[in-house]
Amino acid sequence: MSSHKTAGVARVLSGALRVWGVSASVERDPERADAFVLRTQSGIRMQIAPTAPYGWLVWREGRSLGTHKGLTGLLRSLREELAPDAAAGRLIIGSQSLL
């Protein structure tokens, strides 16, 4: 995964967490350049890594939460795990002008 695409995925994850009201950081995984580590202020640590052909593998504290096809499945899984009381709905993912 290119660094531009990886940065874009990190922004999408951070934005979704903000929308759901989850206080957390999204960082690059030091062990795998195309993967992420998500850390909440409450101490939850999750790892997210791309898997072939077009999916995401998620772990929480060494326990697999499964493989999710595409970003939509990943986001749905994260919301269910981290913000089960957040309203289910659609996130609009797009670029935003800084002006």
Give a brief outline of the structure:
The protein is of the alpha+beta class and 99 residues long. It has one domain (3-82). It is built from two helices and five strands.
Question: Any overview of this molecule?
Answer:
This protein is an alpha+beta fold and 99 residues long. The chain has one domain. 31% of the residues lie in helices and 35% in strands. It has a five-stranded antiparallel beta sheet. The mean pLDDT is 85.
Q: Based on DSSP secondary structure assignment, what is the total number of beta strands?
A: 5
Instruction: Please tally the helical runs, counting DSSP H or I stretches of 4 or more residues.
Output: 2
Radius of gyration: 13 Å
Q: What does the largest sheet look like?
A: 5 strands, antiparallel
Helical content stands at: 25-40%
The share of residues in extended strands comes to 35-45%
Low-confidence stretches: none
Order of helices and strands: HEEEEEH
The helix/strand class is: alpha+beta
The number of domains is 1
Order of neighbouring strands in the sheet with most strands: 1-2-3-4-5
Write down the overall geometry.
globular
**Straight-line distance between termini:** 29 Å
What's the SSE blueprint?
Blueprint: H1 3-20, E1 24-29, E2 32-40, E3 45-51, E4 55-60, E5 63-69, H2 70-82
Antiparallel strand pairs: 1-2, 2-3, 3-4, 4-5
Structure characteristics:
99 residues; 5-stranded antiparallel sheet; 5 strands; alpha+beta; 31% helix
